[in-house]
Amino acid sequence: MGDMTFRAWCPVGGDAWCKGEIIYPPDADPDGSAWMLSYYAGGPATCHEFAGRYDGVDVPPEAIARIYRHEPLSPGLIAALGALRSYDVPIVEAAKIGYPVA
Q1: Angle CA(93)–CA(99)–CA(62) in degrees, nearest 5?
Q2: Per-residue pLDDT tens over the stretch 44-54
Q3: Which of 40, 48, 86, 101 has the most C-beta neighbours closer than 10 Å?
Q4: Is 17 helix (H, G, I), strand (E, B) or coil?
Q5: Residues 45-70: what's their mean pLDDT?
């Protein structure tokens, strides 16, 4: 495998994110994951603020909160998130990783 900053996964049916056993160099954030994921770890409000600042979009905070609650993806939720893709593309991708779909 080529260069990778970090990798995390949540197994289908799992209830927690996993990461491998790695010997990191001494540093507060050696792989950058704490910094990179900080925009999501703060919850829906932090993610909303980041999306507005980084992408210049104003996604409704309630739509982001629904994703954090793992509500099933539906055409309405995908539209509320401002997706430019058709419903079938994100549904297939979500199903591949075990995310609930409607």
Answers
A1: 105
A2: 999 899 888 88
A3: 48
A4: coil
A5: 89
- For residue 1, count other CB atoms closer than 10 A to its CB: 4
Mean pLDDT of the chain: 84
How far, in Å, CA of 80 to CA of 82, rounded? 5
Exposure string of 12-49, with b = 16+ CB inside 10 Å and e = fewer, is eeeeeeeeeeeeeeeeeeebeeeeeeeeeeeebeebbe
Distance between CA 90 and CA 75 in Å, rounded? 10
Distance of CA 83 to the CA centre of its chain: 14
Across 1-102, the runs of DSSP E, i.e. the strands, are none
* Lookup: tokens for 35: 């910094």
* Eight-state DSSP code of residue 32: S
Whole-structure pTM over 0.70, yes or no? Answer: no
Bridge partners of 75, per DSSP, are none
